[in-house]
Write a structure and sequence with these properties.
Chain A: Its main location: cytoplasm. Chain A: WD repeats lie at residues 6-47, 48-89, 142-183, 187-228, 284-314. The complex is a heterodimer. Chain A has no helices and 28 strands. Chain A is mainly beta. The two termini of chain A are 20 Å apart. The model of chain A has no long low-confidence stretch (mean pLDDT 89). By secondary structure, chain B is of the alpha+beta class. Chain B has six helices and ten strands. Chain B starts with 33 loop residues before the first strand and ends in a 6-residue tail after the last strand. Classes of the chains: A mainly beta, B alpha+beta. Strand 1 of chain A pairs antiparallel with strand 4 (100-102) of chain B.
Amino acid sequence: MRPILMKGHERPLTFLKYNREGDLLVSCAKDHNPTVWFADDGERLGTYRGHNGAVWCCDVSRDSMLLITASADQSVKLWNVQTGAQLYTFSFNSPARSVDFSVDDKLAVITTDPFMGVTSAINVKSIADDPSQQSGESVLTITGPTGRINRAVWGPLNKTIISAGEDSVIRIWDSETGKLLKESNQEVGHKKQITSLTKSADGSHFLTGSLDKSAKLWDTRTLTLIKTYATECPVNAVAMSPLLDHVVLGGGQDASSVTTTDHRAGKFEAKFYNKVLQEEIGGVKGHFGPINALAFNPDGKSFSSGGEDGYVRLHHFDSDYFSIKI
Amino acid sequence: MYVVDESAKPTKMRWGELDEEDGEALDFLLPPKQVIGPDENGIKKETEYKFNDDGNKVKITTTTRVRKLANARLSKRAVERRNWSKFGDAIHEDVGSRLTMVSTEEILLERPRAHGAKAEETKIAGDNLAQLGKGGAVLMVCRTCGKKGDHWTSRCPYKDLAQPPETFIDKPAATETAMAASGATKGAYVPPSMREGAERIGGSDMRRRNDENSVRVTNLSEDTREPDLLELFRTFGSVSRVYVAIDQKTGVSRGFGFVNFVNKEDAERAINKLNGYGYDNLILRVEWATPRSN
């Protein structure tokens, strides 16, 4: 396949997100301006100007009208996807790390980092239909985990919130009361901080990637460990194919810790594994730096990866990808 | 494919009346942008005119090939979104912006290689070659070094070797026996040194002396192979043999190799010159190979 290279960001990529219909791709990077691209040919549609710090995460509403972004400038902003206009800003006392819209886009879960005496927290804000009616109050605030919470997502039917972070423990919280329902088992769980989390298309299982060079597949209801995928590099980003039983892991060591004799240009790769057999199917090379973000198009026919090198690479699969046999 | 053709043409106005700052206001002087749509090969040419910083009229021709990469079936809403106007930093998107490019390389989902596969491949190749007796086959087979698919005999990089080694594949035992067999078969080509009546005794002497002229090279990069070493060392004199240690499982170089010179003086000069030489981002270490105990 011939990937499409999109160099819209001057700084490393942090997150990639497709809209529900798979025709738009939003990329977030450390350079303050999330960008939206057309997902078929990589043409840039626009950028959202307004943040003053690295943008860590974003989410798009189901109707592709609303974009929410979390930034290190201690704010979470709501944007009109089409015009790029800022609709609302939620302010916090510490950098915001992760956002996720609930299934009906009426609520959003936001995590904030530990910062200068403030502990990390999970906040739930309600999203009004009319942006002018939007209030900044939290519906629910959960504190408890030590260390950064790198990702928090809604569980099935918005009943639960799943969080994972620096302390390498996955927690499931009740979304109405804020009570801790489950914690992942320390023995089988990750050994180092969890960098990324992605849900399956139906929400029944989710995949976490960690700096301990592995990714693990968990059941959403019971938080039991289903599968483990081992790699040679710390995992920064994970993605699951909505079409086939594939998981993709992306990662790579920091440039500063790699000896010059070992790695060469274009050698960082996104590794494909068979979800059920835990075996590596192959790798897609090309990035010049560690891969920080991965996303699958909801139709499963293409995926994109964002790297430390500032490039977004959009890959449309060849027909032989769909007939891979083990 | 992207071709930029800039030709500065002076404007037809009297340059004395023309102010530097007015350059941009003279946009009406520019011919309109022309788009010659995708033809049957998908080649699209866009010709744009603008004023560059020096106030010269500049013509930028962008040639792109429009390729259908994938079938995207868009919903009605998605088709509407396609027509949204640009915002933010994308407002000033012009033809010359190279933000989105299709990669020039074909990237494949590389399947991880099974361990057994590679070793099998090379072994079979070695036997086949010896069987052919280095006659001209459909494949490009070189008589001197036996490397198939690489070059013909007249273009062999190992032309000047005194004793042509049969193959460089790590199965010397297999090839030697095969050679004896093909020597016996009629019509198979046997190099002069291997024929009966050749200077066998001198040959073994030469070989022994060659082993004393053996130079060990260490700290080689992963993808250094025999031809690279040969190119590097041949300037010092005739090289009779080169060898690079390869890890069979991964196919990468183990970082060291041996070069045998015909003359000891050449080997000595090579050591003096190339020890500490930077090659492929690594500093080479070149020294006498320790004599192997027989």
